[in-house]
Each structure stands twice: as structure tokens, then as C-alpha cells.
Inverse folding.
């Protein structure tokens, strides 16, 4: 295994007292944002990011990625105990997790969720270890047209595979690109789209957008429902853990299948939410105990949790190897990398192997730390939700606006965060997807640069995107995906007319 | 109170407007072929057109499916909850700009807890003040990240 030596070196980087302490802090903060409604992984990472600007990039990414693992675990906890997904991606866990908790099997459900989540994450990280070097090597051959094709493919798959209306996905994505274009033009160095406002000269930060869309927008949605938390009390004892570990092998098919679904959805920008729902649906369809699903079936907890975490961790692979994040949180982290002065993509493996392998090694350790921390601290975090929302809600508001200000120290950003908050609320109510907007804001400049450089190379001819087999395949695949909703409905109509004429 | 149909129409119109703004804004910077390849306005110009087209398509989808969209999106009770949460938030931002984030946070938390949460004033004020002091120590001392400050900090000599 050619990646073994650098990985060992990575463990050397990650296994210092300071970094392990950072992992614990990150996981604890992550569980906190995961448990609190309105604060999720993308938003939590955005809030913490400005505080890491002065840190060493390796330490910073360890802190942020640990927060991500923690948030994923925290989200599952509220799903099981309160029937409220703390994270959108743990919504599928409520189907069987909450019924289990109500039947007095809360400890079993939690342990099962955490262990299968840990398993899923481990599979994701192993996949990254094995594939990342290979993908990066492959991507070293990429030049501008290939990069543009990869970006195009990523966005096309949102349109083609997303659950939302394809038009709404395009609107959300296009707005992200438009916001990214405001301010400095990275190629000519000139300013554009500032409409005479000095405040827009330095552009619109994607961090402000995430804080507004995910944080404030989600809080407004939560408030509207007038949330009451009626949770199930739970304590996890070592005996519960051991007894549950003994039952784990029973679910090996579900674990493997869900890991594969999760890894696939994580590498392609399907994301953890889609992965967990898909995995649940598969488990339900294929299980012999179909009728028990929705009434507290353990496999109904194992399947979505494994896929959720497998997707969450494998989303890091395209981010570091190609510079294309596989989820909204990965997009925020990638934005962070660029702010720290690192260039995500294949060159990162050559320029900063300590960073890449330190991150990968920290993913192994971080997930182990996360499982241990989450198992021991769950009662404390569950009790946070017993604090009335009249206190928690406004505190989250204050944290969001303080976070928005720390991004660049600009008062104008407070208004921007408020505006994005309103937009987030409306988008959520009307089923506009938010992740494409965030991804477009992070990738906007890179995608535009790749496009313009390709155009310069070809002197303005679009044929460069079919100039060799690789780029042609990527672009054609992207177009098929983007047009997939249209093609699918046309095919369905064709079939229907055929069958109706046959009947006539 | 607000039907899904009217909300869809309003949102799609607004996104079309944003697309138009991008198109109009980029025309100023050239949308053709310059001496150094595509001019700076080209990419946002076509993105703006794309947003407009997709917004119009969403409008079309909405009008075609209007029968199914005559549902209540936000009822009176929900609207009241959102407004009572959002209103103080706007005031918080306004106060932050004049008084700084620390003072505004303390005031906001105090009044929201007191007037909306039903806590006694003394408890609310203590909690608000404690939160502001906590944020001060964590951010300014712990992470050395300065926040927006106002006249009170200036009077106390805190920078």
C-alpha cells in the first residue's frame, strides 16, 4: 500500500497532545451545535472558522473537522431522544430511533446509532486513505477545461439528482454564482457588480451567507413551529454499550450496504441527507422485518446513521483531491482552506503532504474520540434542550451575529446576515435547496477562472470542452445529468402514450 | 394567511429581479470578447440570464400547478411567532451598529427574556449581562478577535 507511509507520518502529526485536545474541544462544540436546533454543522463550522485564522492550518482543520463529526453525532441524539433532527441529515433516524426511545430502549438506540455511525465514518476514511492519492495523481493531468468540466458535473448532479424542483436548484445555484462574482474579478483584478456601494467592494463572504441561510433562517423556521421539547430521558451505561456491541454483527449487511450508499453519495455531491434517506429506504425494502420499520426497528437506526456518517466523511475526498466539496459543510471547510492560503486540489498532496495526511489521520482519531466523547456526555447535552427556547433561541441569534461580525469586522455584514436569514426562511418554506447556493459561492471564482482560461486557450470556442476524451466525457455526463429531469419526464410520457395506444 | 401560491410567485419574481440585476450590472463591465479573453462581465451576465430563465420557469410551474398550491403556507399564529422573534432581532442589529455588539447583546437578551420569556427583570438582566461579559472574555481575551464596540466601551477605556 503506497499510501501507508504518508499515513503513518500523518498519525505522527495528528497524535500530539495539543491536537488530541483540539479534537475533544471540536467534538464537544460539534455536539453542542448538532444538538441545538438552528445551529448545524455548516453553520457551526462557519462560526468557528474566523477564530482559526491565526491558527496553524493543520490544527485549524483538525478543530473544524472534529466539530463536523461532533455535529453529526449531536444531530442523531436529538433525533432519537426528542424526535427532532438536530441536523437535516439525521431526519431519517427519527423514524425508528424515537419509537425505540419511547419503548424504553433509548440507550440501545443511542449506542446503536453511535456505533454504526462510527463504522460508517471509518469506511469513509479508509476509502479516502486508499483513493485520495490515486485521485489526486489522476487530477494532476487536469488543466482548465477539465476543472471546469468537474465543476460543471458537480452542479449538474445537483440539478439532476436533487429532490427539489430542478428550476429551483438552478435559481439557487445561479444566485450563488452571482453573489460570488460581486467585488474583485480575480482575473482582471478590476471591481464589478458593486452598484456604487462601497460596502460591496470586498464582495459577499460565503460565511455570511451560511450563517444567515442555515443559522438565522433555520431558527425562524423552528420558531414558527413553536417548538416544545418533550424528550425521553436516557443514560448510557457501559453495560448497555457492551450488550449493543454484541448485537452489531447481526446488522452486517445493513452496515455494508449503507456504507456503500453513503460513500457514493458523499463523493458525488448528493450529500449526507440524501444518503441517509436512500439508505433507510433500501433497508426497509430489503428487510425481512419490513412491517416493523417505523415502530422501533433497530435496523432502521443502523441504516441511516451508517450512511449519514459515511457520506459526511467521504465528502472530504473530492474536496482535498479535486477541490470540489461533496457537501455544504465540506464547502465551508474548503473555503477555509483557501482563506488559510492553501489551494485544495491535487497540488495540495505535493505541496502540503503534512496537511493532507495529518487531516486524514485526524479523521481516524477524531471519529474514535467522537464516539467515546458522545457516549459519555450524552446526558449533559440532552439536558441542554430542557432549557426553555426563550433563552436558547436569542442566545443562538447573538452567536450568529457575533460570528457574522468576526468574519471580516464589517458592520454591513450584520445586515447581510439578516437578509440571508430571511432568504433562508423563505427558501426553506418553499423547498429551494440551499446547499447548491453555498457550493456556488465557494466555487464561483474557481469555476469562472477555469471557464475563462479555457476560453482563452481555445480563443473563444466552446469545442475545447470536447477536445479530448476525458473532458468530453465529463461535460457530456454533466449535460445528461442536468437534463435528466427533462429526459426522464419525456421518456415517461413516451412510455405512457405507447402503452395507452397499445391499450386502444 | 399567506398562501403557498402567492409566496411562490413573490419569491420567483424576486429571484428573477436579482438575475436581472446581475445582467444589468455586468453590462457595465463588458460581456463580449476583450483583449484578454472574455471580459469581466461575461460570466455574471450569462449567470444572470440563467437565473432569470429558471425563475420564469418556476413561475410557469407555479401557475400551471396553482390548484395544488392554494394551501396555507403560514397561518396567523405562525406569522405572529415569526414576527415576535424577528422584530427584536432587527432591533438588535440596529442597536449593535450604534452601541456595539456587547451592549446590544446584553440589552437584547435581557428584554427578550423579560418581555417574551416571562422571567423576572432581575434574572433577565443578570443573564444578559453575564452573556455579554462571557463573550467579551472568550473573544477579546481568548481568541483576540475584536468585536464592534460603541460609546460604553470607549467610556470604560476598553478597546
Amino acid at each position: 500500500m503506497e499510501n501507508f507511509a504518508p499515513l503513518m507520518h500523518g498519525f505522527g502529526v495528528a497524535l500530539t497532545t495539543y491536537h488530541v485536545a483540539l479534537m475533544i474541544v471540536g467534538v464537544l462544540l460539534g455536539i453542542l451545535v448538532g444538538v441545538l436546533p438552528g445551529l448545524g454543522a455548516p453553520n457551526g463550522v462557519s462560526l468557528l472558522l474566523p477564530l482559526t485564522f491565526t491558527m496553524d492550518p493543520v490544527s485549524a482543520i483538525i478543530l473544524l473537522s472534529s466539530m463536523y463529526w461532533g455535529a453529526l453525532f449531536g444531530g442523531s441524539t436529538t433525533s432519537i431522544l426528542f424526535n427532532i433532527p438536530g441536523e437535516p441529515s439525521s431526519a431519517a433516524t427519527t423514524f425508528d430511533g424515537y419509537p425505540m426511545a419511547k419503548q424504553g430502549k433509548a440507550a440501545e438506540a443511542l449506542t446503536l446509532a453511535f456505533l454504526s455511525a462510527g463504522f460508517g465514518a471509518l469506511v469513509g476514511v479508509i476509502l479516502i486513505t486508499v483513493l485520495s492519492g490515486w485521485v489526486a495523481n489522476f487530477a494532476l493531468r487536469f488543466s482548465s477545461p477539465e476543472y471546469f468540466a468537474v465543476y460543471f458535473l458537480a452542479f449538474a448532479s445537483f440539478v439532476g439528482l436533487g429532490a427539489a424542483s430542478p428550476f429551483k436548484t438552478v435559481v439557487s445555484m445561479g444566485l450563488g454564482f452571482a453573489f460570488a462574482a460581486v467585488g474583485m474579478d480575480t482575473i482582471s483584478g478590476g471591481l464589478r457588480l458593486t452598484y456604487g456601494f462601497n460596502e460591496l467592494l470586498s464582495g459577499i463572504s460565503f460565511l455570511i451567507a451560511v450563517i444567515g441561510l442555515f443559522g438565522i433562517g433555520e431558527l425562524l423556521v423552528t420558531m414558527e413551529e413553536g417548538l416544545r421539547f418533550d424528550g425521553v430521558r436516557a443514560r448510557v451505561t457501559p453495560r448497555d454499550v457492551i450488550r449493543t456491541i454484541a448485537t452489531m454483527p447481526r446488522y452486517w449487511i445493513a452496515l455494508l450496504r449503507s456504507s456503500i450508499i453513503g460513500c457514493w453519495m458523499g463523493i458525488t455531491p448528493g450529500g449526507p441527507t440524501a444518503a441517509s434517506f436512500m439508505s433507510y429506504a433500501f433497508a426497509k425494502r430489503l428487510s425481512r422485518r419490513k412491517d416493523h420499520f417505523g415502530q422501533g426497528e433497530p435496523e432502521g437506526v443502523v441504516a441511516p446513521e451508517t450512511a449519514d456518517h459515511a457520506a459526511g466523511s467521504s465528502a472530504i475526498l473530492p474536496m482535498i483531491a479535486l477541490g470540489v466539496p461533496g457537501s455544504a459543510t465540506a464547502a465551508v471547510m474548503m473555503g477555509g482552506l483557501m482563506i488559510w492560503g492553501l489551494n485544495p486540489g491535487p497540488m495540495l498532496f505535493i505541496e502540503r503532504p503534512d496537511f493532507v495526511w495529518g487531516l486524514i489521520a485526524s479523521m481516524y482519531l477524531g471519529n474514535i474520540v467522537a464516539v467515546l466523547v458522545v457516549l459519555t456526555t450524552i446526558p449533559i447535552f440532552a439536558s441542554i434542550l430542557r432549557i426553555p427556547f426563550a433563552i436558547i433561541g436569542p442566545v443562538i441569534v447573538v452567536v450568529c451575529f457575533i460570528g457574522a461580525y468576526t468574519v471580516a469586522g464589517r458592520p454591513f455584514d450584520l445586515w447581510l446576515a439578516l437578509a440571508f436569514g430571511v432568504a433562508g426562511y423563505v427558501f426553506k418554506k418553499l423547498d429551494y435547496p440551499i446547499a447548491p447556493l453555498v457550493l456556488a459561492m465557494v466555487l464561483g471564482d474557481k469555476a469562472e477562472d477555469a471557464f475563462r482560461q479555457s476560453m482563452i486557450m481555445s480563443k473563444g470556442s466552446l469545442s475545447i470542452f470536447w477536445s479530448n476524451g476525458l473532458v468530453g466525457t465529463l461535460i457530456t455526463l454533466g449535460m445528461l445529468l442536468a437534463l435528466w429531469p427533462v429526459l426522464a419526464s419525456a421518456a415517461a410520457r413516451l412510455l405512457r402514450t405507447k402503452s395507452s395506444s397499445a391499450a386502444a | 394567511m399567506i398562501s403557498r401560491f402567492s409566496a411562490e410567485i413573490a419569491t420567483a419574481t424576486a429571484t428573477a429581479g436579482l438575475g436581472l440585476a446581475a445582467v444589468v450590472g455586468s453590462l457595465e463591465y463588458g460581456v463580449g470578447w476583450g483583449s484578454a479573453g472574455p471580459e469581466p462581465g461575461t460570466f455574471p451576465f450569462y449567470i444572470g440570464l440563467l437565473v432569470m430563465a429558471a425563475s420564469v420557469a418556476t413561475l410557469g410551474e407555479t401557475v400551471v400547478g396553482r390548484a395544488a398550491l392554494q394551501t396555507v403556507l403560514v397561518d396567523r399564529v405562525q406569522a405572529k411567532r415569526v414576527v415576535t422573534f424577528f422584530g427584536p432581532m432587527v432591533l438588535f442589529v440596529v442597536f449593535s451598529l450604534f452601541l456595539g455588539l456587547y451592549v446590544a447583546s446584553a440589552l437584547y437578551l435581557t428584554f427578550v427574556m423579560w418581555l417574551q420569556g416571562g422571567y423576572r427583570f432581575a434574572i433577565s438582566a443578570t443573564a444578559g449581562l453575564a452573556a455579554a461579559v462571557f463573550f467579551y472574555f472568550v473573544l477579546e481575551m481568548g481568541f483576540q478577535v475584536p468585536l464592534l464596540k460603541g460609546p460604553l466601551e470607549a467610556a470604560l477605556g476598553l478597546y
About this structure: Chain A is about 75% helix and 0% strand.
